[in-house]
Amino acid sequence: ERIKSVKQRQRKKGRYLGGSRPFGYMIHENGRLIENPMEQRVLNRIIELKKQGKSLRVISQEVSTPIMPISFKTVQRLIQRHAGQL
Description:
The protein is mostly helical and 86 residues long. The chain has 4 helices and 2 strands; from the N terminus they run αββααα. The radius of gyration is 16 Å and the shape is elongated.
């Protein structure tokens, strides 16, 4: 009961409560999700390339960098999550 009520209070305050953060966002020091500009650019590029009909592997190769490698599975998951933008 205590945990449930604490989570409800945190949710009402708009705090991010669970798991690993979604790609394209970071957790601000106040506990809320805010956009990560670099990852948002990558996400927009992934969506743009998919609209052009590129394969998951080609998209992965185009958006990956040594600093931020992105597998085709990650590309697949992001496309599924953002299917409404396609």
